[in-house]
Amino acid sequence: MDIGIGIPNTVLDTPGELLIEWARRAEERGFTTLATIGRIAYPSHDELVALAAAAGATERIGLFTDILLGPAFPTATLAKQTATLASVSRGRFTLGAAVGARPDDYAAAEASFEDRGRRFDEQLEALHAAWRGEPLPGTDHRVAPPLPDGRVPMMFGGEPRFAAPRAVRWNGGYTIGGAPPEQAAGAAEEFRRSYADLGGSGAPRIAALVYFSVGEEHTDESLRSLRMYYAFLGDWANMVAEAAARKPDDLRSRMRAYEDAGIDELVFDPTVANVDQVDRLADVVLV
């Protein structure tokens, strides 16, 4: 199982320059992927801009939006930005995308919420046309630099019943956000079954995300960060905050549990914006 690490783009008050230092250190320590979390109605760093900066500061590490809210973005803009990021990173970028479940993100983006699933499927058709160097469907407008492979690799989030048809259509994988190992195992099994039933070829790649912090001195900050990010859940926010992995034995046991669940890549997502988290996590899970 590959081990990736998130970049703290959603941790409040993270200075922009720390993201660059974090990316360099993550590559030096041998993490396979540097991942972001995407929100709009939250004072976080933009995920595509953050990964573009990381691309310029690194050479090998993969770059992954986990996940970007596709239908909240204008399609032409998203096609141009993702093609550019794929180009400047020399093919290291994977677009993880889904529709999300929070109306406030769509309200902030001035985009409709109720029809986001239908619009996402239309958007995916347009993105792939743009990446091939073709005009957007129904127009004469070529909006993105054509990519050598004609596509950006994709991972889809959300419920397996929605993600599997998209993965089959676009030769993509599946990413599971924040579920404990036993739930991730069930989601992965359901996705693989649906993928095969729909005629998908090969073994689709499956990723999962788990929140973490390392060091007792960081626990209060980690709890506060998650409680704020998930405040919309009310009392459940504290349960999410308490569930993060914080002790070395817990980090190792969860890693083994996700591997047993058939996860191909586990992304440890930070809840503290201190670059010591990169080294302290690596010392536990990359040995």
* Structural class label: alpha/beta
Number of helices: 11
Q: How are helices and strands ordered from N to C?
A: EHEHEEHEHHEHEHEHHHEH
Largest sheet: 8 strands, parallel, barrel
Overall number of strands: 9
Mean pLDDT: 97
> In what order do the strands lie side by side in the largest sheet?
1-2-3-5-6-7-8-9
By CATH, the architecture is named Alpha-Beta Barrel
What name does CATH use for the topology?
TIM Barrel
Query: Which overall shape is indicated by the principal axes computed on the Cα atoms?
Result: globular
CATH superfamily: Luciferase-like domain
Overview of the structural elements:
The protein has 287 residues and is of the alpha/beta class. The chain is built from 11 helices and 9 strands. The longest helix has 17 residues.
Topology:
Layout: E1 2-6, H1 16-29, E2 33-36, H2 47-57, E3 62-65, E4 68-69, H3 75-88, E5 93-98, H4 103-109, H5 116-131, E6 154-156, H6 160-170, E7 173-177, H7 181-197, E8 206-212, H8 219-229, H9 236-242, H10 248-260, E9 265-270, H11 276-285
Parallel strand pairs: 1-2, 1-9, 2-3, 3-5, 4-5, 5-6, 6-7, 7-8, 8-9
Helix pairs in contact: 1-2, 2-3, 3-5, 6-7, 7-10, 8-9
Features:
globular; TIM Barrel; alpha/beta; eight-stranded parallel β-barrel; 287 residues; 11 helices
Task: Briefly say what this structure is.
With 287 residues, the chain is an alpha/beta fold.
